Amino acid sequence: EQWKQEAILMDMNKTVCTCYGVTIGDLKEAIENGAGSFDEVQEITNVSTACGSCEEYARNVVEELLKEQES
Question: Rounded to two decimals, what is the model's pTM?
Answer without folding.
Answer: 0.86
